[in-house]
Amino acid sequence: MDANRPHSAESDSPGVDLLGMARRHWWLVLILMVAGVAGAAQFTSMQTKVYESATSVLVSPIGNGQDANSTSGRTKGDINLDNEAQLVTSTTVATDAAALMRSTTPPDTLAGNVRVEVPPNTTFLVITYSAGDPAVAQAGSHAFAEAYLRNREESAKAEVAARIAILNDKISQLNAGLTQINTKLATLRPTDPNRPNLESQRSTATSQINTLAGQLNQLLTTTVSAGKITRDADLPSSPVKPNRLLNLASGAMIGLLLGVGAAMLRERLDQRVRRAGDLPRRVDVAVLAAVPGRVKPRLDDVFAPFGTGGRIFNRLRNEVLASIPAPAGGDARVALAGQVVVVAGASRGAASTVVAANLAAAFARTGAETVLVCAHLPDSLVDTASVNRMLGVRAVPGLSDVLAGRFSLSSATQRAPRHPNLSVVTTGGTASAGGLLQSQALRDTLATLRERAAYVVVEAPSTATSADAQSLASLADAAIVAVELRRTRNTEIVDAADQLRRVGTPLLGAVVLPRLTTPRTSDEREQAPEEPTVADDMTTVLDKLPPKETVPAKKDEEPAVTKRIRTTPAAASSTAPSPTVPVPPKRQNRTFSVTRIPAETPSENGADKRR
């Protein structure tokens, strides 16, 4: 099977990944957004309030008192509104405005608070003044507009006066020249040849004097109009800075960006598996099946056959069967008989138990004889689900008891009452079974199960806690890694895949489960009957078993070995006590016969029937 095959149920598109990341770390994004809004509110409260007031001034050409023609806010005539806007903030105008405001602030500082705008297609100047006090803002705007108009009017009057002086000088010069010409003409005879020339000069001078006199008269009668205020500054009612709404929105946006960045960083640093699509991309392990988050795995029973979880494991069963190649030239049904599949968890937890139990149930639903072998040692049962509770079987005897030689495999194999064709070998109750998963007894046990069942599903310990999963995988035909979301780390999956591949066992892929919850509540634990722990003495367990008759050994069969266990101390059969002490009633010694049944003898529950 191609290990690089992406899981079809998950999409690796950046948009889906980003949305999933935001959904997983929504609390971090929310916290930083709230922090951004709180910071913006604090910054707004610390800012100085700024008020603005504006005055509109109509700029008129000097001399005619008429509005100038304008194109795109710039005049065609003698007025250049860009120059006039610069004139408003000049030092001369700022000095006059400071005098009008009766302010001791330097003129250049006052000019820095002024902003001049030229509306399009108009000859207006909008003079805006900013200050920390509304009255100062109003006074400043009016003062700069008034100072600008006064300065422009004074400049215009000075210019007119200068032009009048120039015309008067020219007229005076022409009058002096005309006087000399008239004097010469008075001395000449009418027939003098120079007389026509002098009369021509007198005519020209007279004409020039008349022209200059007309211009002088026009200047003397010209009305100087620099412009006028069309809308005076008003008293601002609210500050323009700080803009609370803008600051809060900016703080929320900055917090959102920081939250997304922090979520991306946390996602990058977090090595836990968050979704099934991460496995092919990050750890190069194919996803055989993924149980969606809305389907909560049951820890007291397997999935229903026709439910969502049951259909997922039915498809998983089909993929497992298709992934195990049959020998060339052999019958497929015969070749697939006795196949051993190991399910190992990449991390501690109940993921391998859930996957192994449901996969075994899926195999059994095909009508083939299936055996589920729980190979968790007693010291690794802390974080695992109870298989006997899920499938309704007894906790003991189990695999560890078989490997320790206390029970035969047939007596440890139990039929699952709710699942036909499914037998279970639980973990067992022998506490001193360490190292038995690497023994020859385990190899013989799996070989016997291969002969008795079509499919053997082995629930192996986690690869993160011991090397037992690797030992079991070396005896199997295929291996599957069980991954629990938000608990299993990428490094653990890489290590698990490396362990299983090193022993030469084909790694089919991974089965992904959502985060598993506690199987039962505290009230359910109190009401449930207490199960024997791994530290229970085997004598107590055997006392609870009903007495059985010893099975006589048949010919050519292994003789049955009978062990007798005394349930009362030897002191109970001692001599009678002294007369001063009351004699308790004598207890009758009971002897139970426990028969070790050979492997070839069929068991009562039929778990050893071949397919």
Automatic annotation (TrEMBL):
<keyword id="KW-1003">Cell membrane</keyword>
<dbReference type="InterPro" id="IPR050445">
    <property type="entry name" value="Bact_polysacc_biosynth/exp"/>
</dbReference>
<dbReference type="Pfam" id="PF02706">
    <property type="entry name" value="Wzz"/>
</dbReference>
<keyword id="KW-1133">Transmembrane helix</keyword>
<protein>
    <submittedName>
        <fullName>Lipopolysaccharide biosynthesis protein</fullName>
    </submittedName>
</protein>
<feature type="domain" description="Polysaccharide chain length determinant N-terminal">
    <location>
        <begin position="17"/>
        <end position="96"/>
    </location>
</feature>
<dbReference type="InterPro" id="IPR027417">
    <property type="entry name" value="P-loop_NTPase"/>
</dbReference>
<feature type="compositionally biased region" description="Basic and acidic residues">
    <location>
        <begin position="545"/>
        <end position="561"/>
    </location>
</feature>
<feature type="transmembrane region" description="Helical">
    <location>
        <begin position="25"/>
        <end position="43"/>
    </location>
</feature>
<dbReference type="InterPro" id="IPR003856">
    <property type="entry name" value="LPS_length_determ_N"/>
</dbReference>
<keyword id="KW-0472">Membrane</keyword>
<feature type="compositionally biased region" description="Low complexity">
    <location>
        <begin position="567"/>
        <end position="578"/>
    </location>
</feature>
<feature type="region of interest" description="Disordered">
    <location>
        <begin position="517"/>
        <end position="611"/>
    </location>
</feature>
<comment type="similarity">
    <text>Belongs to the CpsC/CapA family.</text>
</comment>
<keyword id="KW-0812">Transmembrane</keyword>
